[in-house]
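Q: Here's a chain of 165 amino acids. Please give me its 3D structure as tokens.
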Amino acid sequence: MEDERKIAAVLEALDVLLDRCEETARKTSRSILCWLRSTHALACYLKPFILVHHPSSRRKYRVLFKRCLLLIFRSYRMDPDTRDRLTGIRFKRKQFRFLEAIWNHESLSDLDAQSPRTRLSLPGTEEDSLGGFMQRCLSHNYSEDEREDDDEEDVTESSEEDCEY
């Protein structure tokens, strides 16, 4: 039951994160949005990236994204042999470490004391928040050893020393 509460908190934080992404996209210049939509490194697309217009479509995309994240975290919490047998999902070490770091983040330790916005953080307080943590993980420069780990599958367990964020 505690796992489901934690997963629900992550999904609530996802809504806050997506709200912030949409707000950023609304305030971003047209030229950058054209580059964002482009599939080529040296040429921008003629038309800018645009957000989904209809609220019903927006809700459908969010529900789909949440269902995907729900499956990922429920799978992560399964015993590796059971997960492989039932779902066929195998996490690479980098993926497993990232999920483990999110799962064990201090902002998810006391779910009753914090709102989703507090957990994800508001601008100016990002250092200790789940959102600030995720941002640091995504911009982390990995060593050669860590890059080699990315190719390995069948992660069955990890240790504290594996997760250095």
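Q: Can you summarize the key feature?
A: The two ends are 28 Å apart (CA to CA).
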